[in-house]
């Protein structure tokens, strides 16, 4: 993934308004209801420090005013709130065994089947963060399409809740030191090195941008897409959800996958005891039962 994870960065709230008991309880309920994340009392200082930036940006004098804004129009501020209290952790080709399975086994099989049937191929990066995950998928997919020499309607959907993360994903511009997981051959093939004011940066190749559609989506709200997807990547996202939220999400993923479709989780995540719809077929790799 692509992950949105809570991490205490030690930001102090010195000189700013304090987050009172009532406001913190409201925020805890709001974040759980809309984001599926349970904020413990230990996260109070983190929430206070992170949200002070939003108070300043919105020119609000206290947290009561911010809570009132959320009550009036939850959707308008939800993405900013999620961005403020989370840290997007991702990298190109993170958990490489998933990409190796795609490249060596799944994509060749799928492309041959799609060519014969005329069906489309769809992969979903659910929680794409700043886009490294879906663009890594796009490299593997583009290369597989070339090797197969077949014309198949193939696309990758990349979704996230954070407006800031989605902005980076849409631009597809990354500092060169972010390309550590990309081989030298793929760097030459799939990135355009920046010059002038963009020195030290690289943009993903237009071919990759053609394959990836970046959209905002809250995993806990309604999903506008119908599916089906051949594979869903939801890595390092559900680790911060409680058990009932995970179970609901896995049921919804199962509805979006055909029998034999794949669901990829993060290295610290497991579906054990949470779903009967999937079977474990590899490291954090699950296949929907027939």
Automatic annotation (TrEMBL):
Gene3D superfamilies in the record: Chemotaxis receptor methyltransferase CheR, N-terminal domain (1.10.155.10), Vaccinia Virus protein VP39 (3.40.50.150)
Binding locations of S-adenosyl-L-methionine: 88, 90, 94, 133, 160, 218-219, 235-236
Single annotated GO MF: protein-glutamate O-methyltransferase activity
Family annotation (InterPro entries): Bact_Chemotaxis_MeTrfase, Chemotaxis_MeTrfase_CheR, CheR_C, CheR_MeTrfase, CheR_N, CheR_N_sf, SAM-dependent_MTases_sf
CDD domains the record matches: AdoMet_MTases
Keywords in alphabetical order: Methyltransferase, S-adenosyl-L-methionine, Transferase
Top EC category: transferase
Domain CheR-type methyltransferase: 12-290
EC number: 2.1.1.80
Entries under Pfam families matching the protein: CheR, CheR_N
Catalyzed reactions per annotation: L-glutamyl-[protein] + S-adenosyl-L-methionine = [protein]-L-glutamate 5-O-methyl ester + S-adenosyl-L-homocysteine
Highest taxon of the lineage: Bacteria
Gene Ontology biological process terms from the UniProt entry: methylation
Role: Methylation of the membrane-bound methyl-accepting chemotaxis proteins (MCP) to form gamma-glutamyl methyl ester residues in MCP.
Stated name of the protein: Chemotaxis protein methyltransferase
Record lineage: Bacteria, Pseudomonadati, Pseudomonadota, Gammaproteobacteria, Lysobacterales
């Amino acid at each position: 993934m692509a992950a949105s994870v809570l991490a205490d960065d030690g930001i102090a709230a010195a000189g700013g308004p304090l987050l009172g008991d009532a406001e913190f309880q409201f925020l805890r309920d709001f974040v759980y209801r809309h984001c599926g994340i349970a904020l413990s009392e230990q996260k109070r200082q983190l929430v206070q420090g992170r949200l002070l930036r939003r108070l300043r940006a919105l020119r609000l004098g206290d947290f009561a005013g911010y809570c009132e804004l959320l009550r009036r129009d939850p959707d308008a501020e939800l993405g900013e709130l999620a961005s403020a209290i989370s840290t997007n952790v991702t990298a190109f080709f993170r958990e490489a065994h998933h990409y190796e399975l795609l490249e060596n086994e799944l994509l060749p099989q799928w492309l041959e089947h799609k060519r014969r049937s005329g069906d489309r191929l769809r992969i979903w990066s659910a929680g794409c963060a700043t886009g490294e995950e879906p663009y890594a998928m796009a490299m593997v997919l583009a290369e597989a399409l070339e090797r197969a020499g077949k014309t198949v309607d193939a696309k990758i959907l990349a979704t996230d809740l954070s407006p800031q993360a989605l902005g980076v994903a849409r631009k597809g511009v990354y500092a060169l030191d972010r390309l550590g997981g990309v081989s030298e051959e793929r760097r030459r093939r799939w990135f355009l090195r920046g010059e002038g004011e963009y020195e030290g940066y690289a943009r993903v190749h237009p071919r990759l941008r053609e394959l990836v559609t970046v959209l905002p989506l809250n995993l806990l709200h309604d999903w506008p897409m119908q599916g089906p997807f051949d594979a869903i990547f939801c890595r390092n996202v559900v680790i911060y959800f409680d058990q009932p939220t995970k179970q609901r999400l896995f049921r919804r993923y199962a509805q979006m996958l055909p029998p034999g479709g794949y669901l990829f989780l993060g290295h610290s995540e497991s579906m054990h005891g949470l779903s009967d719809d999937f079977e474990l077929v590899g490291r954090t790799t699950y296949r929907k039962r027939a």
